[in-house]
Amino acid sequence: MTGFRFTTIDLPDDYEGRVIATLIEAHPRPCLTQERPAACDLSSPPRGAVLYLHGYLDYFFQEHFARRILDSGRSFYALDLRKYGRSYLPGQHFDYCRRLDEYYPEIDRALEAMRLAGHDDITLVGHSTGGLLAALYCAEGNFRERISRLILNSPFLAFNAGAWERRVMIPLAGALSRIFPYMSARNRLSDNYFLSIHRSACGEWDFDLHYKPRTIPLYFAWLGAVRSAQRKAARGLGLRLPVLVLHSARSSWHEAWDPEALSTDTVLDVADIVRLAPRLGSRVETEAFEGGLHDLTLSRPEVRRRVMRRMTEFMDRPLPGEASRPKERSCVCREIALPL
Prior knowledge:
alpha/beta, Rossmann fold, two-stranded antiparallel ribbon, 8 helices, about 20% strand, globular
């Protein structure tokens, strides 16, 4: 927990009662030495900051990613969205929503906190379902004009399913959820993704299984919410800000464990990302990473270093109409830990 602040955001009650989100933040800290570098300015926070939105069945635990952002001289913020991770409350349905715009209020609150802290160069980063949500917020959100650029890490732009499921079963599930809001089915997520990232199996990450369990029921309402958002994105969002879309070079699907899961996206079909990403806006760049996992920042060290370097290079570019300025620098305290 050293170096991070966790703030509970109380939100208006919804159909399940009390709702909260959790805002996580960290800021570059000056070196505690006798000869403090001139670049370490204590008088004001850096202009640049990142807001991170996690994916489905997820929460923020990628402290190495936060550290890389801090090393670049930017402040780092993340949300555990309502009913996810640290924001789940007893009696709620885990990771449940009926529309993706239900999450807009906590994004509003996070962006307002960032504005009050003095940040006016904000990059929104979203992974998987959080990437789909981030793209929609940049098109519809109340404070979308405060976002300077968008980075999407394997965005969930289409279901990795056959034509029958996409055209018939998923729309039917969404329709049924309007009558039976909590109807669900067994989740068919491949266990290979968990096995490829958790330290108890073949991965290196020791995330909290209470916050990020191996599986949960597949709620039909969630399917309907995601499908509606994907249809909007597929029709085109008309985004004018710079957008960077990153994804693995290959996907794989195996019923049983296969070592290929250690170097591919086992959740989404990357061909869908390649096909649909250009529809998000007029200034979309895409890049594939050989050996990348579904969450590229959890890939093998050499892969995730390339991913995070590409992200920071994208953030370092001057914005349109902005003269080149010296890169913000800051000496960063490296003793960072998160509750895992």
